[in-house]
Amino acid sequence: MSALGVLLGLFLAQRTAQIVGLNAGRMWNLCVVGLFSALLTQRLLLVLLNFTELRLHPQWLLALSMIHHPLLTGAGALIGAAAAAIYARRNQIQLSTMADAVAAPLSLGLAFEQIGALFAGSSFGTDATVPWAVTYTDPLVARWSGTPLGVPLHPVQAYAAVAFLVLSLLLLVLLPVRKQQGDVAGIWFLGTGVAVFITEFWRDTEGRGTLLHGALDGPQAAAILLVLAGALVLRERKGAGV
To answer: What share of the chain is helix, strand, coil (3-state, %, to 5)?
Structure first.
């Protein structure tokens, strides 16, 4: 599902690049550079964090792609974004225009990634009594993600997938009519932060860290930063009259 999301995001990026006036070929290269950097970072961190287990069971390397963890996601996103920004600078692509073009494809990719996490049992939800609760039974899910077996859980990954899909559609609608470069990227920051913050209420706190005596977890703290970044991007761009 993650791979499908990547492919769909890449193809969508070709369309959004044309909308903002960027060369589609360069946009493809930029996305590939960012994705490769992010995936390589996540893979290396997975190996380092699970080195003891992998020494005993090296064949598990083939299954590590299903692991989903905030630390891995954050590290991969930062390195991928940095690599994409370097490529953009070297090819004289304005960062605000690039960010507008990749916003909707990135949200689409995140939606499919969350569907994959649902199937794999990663980033699982809290205990639930709702009719649409999911119950995991595979021992590997418990080993790699700490997911409780035989317990009905909120399919929070599906909640997040819907939120990211709606955000992607909204950004696609706004892209052709944006008033200034960077506006769509700013809305992506805001929307992603809100989606992450709200859906975290239905996620189990396993491995996510806590702040303020449990009032917030790690991803919620990051979500607040995303919202602030989005507000700052929108405010600065409008203040500059770009």
So the answer is: 75, 5, 20
pLDDT digits (tens, 9 = 90+) for 165-215: 999 999 999 999 988 888 999 999 999 999 999 999 999 876 666 676 666
HEC string for 30-76 = HHHHHHHHHHHHHHHHHHHHCHHHHHHCHHHHHHHHHCCCHHHHHHH
171-178, Cβ contacts within 8 angstroms, sequence gap of 24 or more: 171/103, 171/104, 171/107, 172/16, 172/104, 175/16, 175/19, 175/20, 175/100, 175/101, 175/103, 175/104, 176/19, 178/100
Domain boundaries, the chain: 2-240
Pair 189, 197: CB distance under 8 Å: no
Residues 14-29 have pLDDT tens digits of 999 999 999 888 898 9
pTM: 0.83
Name which of 10, 184, 32 is nearest 96 in CA terms: 184
Amino acid identity for residue 28 in this structure = W
